[in-house]
Design brief:
The structure holds two protein chains of two kinds. By secondary structure, chain A is mostly beta strands. Chain A has no helices and eleven strands. The mean pLDDT of chain B is 97. Classes of the chains: A mainly beta, B mainly beta. Chains A and B meet through β5 and β10 of A and β3, β7 and β8 of B.
Chain lengths: 119, 108
């Protein structure tokens, strides 16, 4: 079965670091871009960035450049989203999503990882 | 920065046709993609490359694009189609994606 499985919910304090993961299975992980999408509580979807696990080519939304780091370990078919210093405003659901092989839409999504940042 | 604009809400009765629009300056040259997100669930791609339907998506979902506007049409909307719908596309460079603000579809 082709799927993306994300790491579990996190509760952190402001200033702490965090790395969440997205593991692909059932397909050739290195040949598909993986994107990250934020959804703040009650709000819409926001594209954060995207990575090509084959060569780690990464692009960021200007809104998230410098705020997060996207990486991937192709040896274990896993993409990551990390923060060095969380803020309360980072509280959100984060989705990873696979870009289609021949088109720019995201054809498969992870189940989401809820990140709560609170003192 | 590039923006896609959607109406916040659309409401139809069951069996009626729902149309959700998405406007953006790059849409004449870039494809639109549509996602359905039901409450508490991850989004699902329902239309790609303006008008193509992924396998498993009901035929009542269709898409079109003309000029700077893309449209998602749900012909004979069902109660189970109640959801938030998001359009998505890339900017003119093709290196950045953007989502519209989302449209809440009510079917009742």
């Amino acid at each position: 079965e082709v799927q993306l499985v994300q790491s579990g919910a996190e509760v952190k304090k402001p200033g702490e670091s965090l790395k969440i993961s997205c593991k692909g299975s059932g397909y050739s992980f290195t040949n598909y871009w993986i994107g990250w999408v934020r959804q703040m509580p009650g709000k819409g979807l926001e594209w954060m960035g995207i990575i090509y696990p084959g060569d780690s080519d990464t692009r960021y939304s200007p809104s998230f450049q410098g705020q997060v780091t996207i990486s991937a370990d192709k040896s274990i078919s896993t993409a990551y989203l990390q923060w060095s210093s969380l803020k309360a405003s980072d509280t959100a659901m984060y989705y990873c999503a696979r870009k289609g092989y021949s088109y720019d839409g995201f054809d498969m999504w992870g189940q989401g990882t809820m990140v709560t940042v609170s003192s | 920065s590039y923006e896609l604009t959607q109406p916040p809400s659309v409401s139809v009765s069951p069996g009626q046709t729902a149309r959700i629009t998405c406007s953006g300056d790059a849409l004449p040259k870039k494809y639109a993609y549509w996602y359905q997100q039901k409450s508490g669930q991850a989004p699902v791609l329902v239309i790609y490359e303006d008008s193509k339907r992924p396998s498993g998506i009901p035929e009542r979902f269709s898409g079109s694009s003309s000029g700077t506007m893309a449209t998602l049409t749900i012909s004979g909307a069902q109660v189970e189609d109640e959801a938030d719908y998001y359009c998505c596309s890339t900017d003119s460079s093709g290196n950045h994606w953007v989502f519209g603000g989302g449209t809440k579809l009510t079917v009742l």
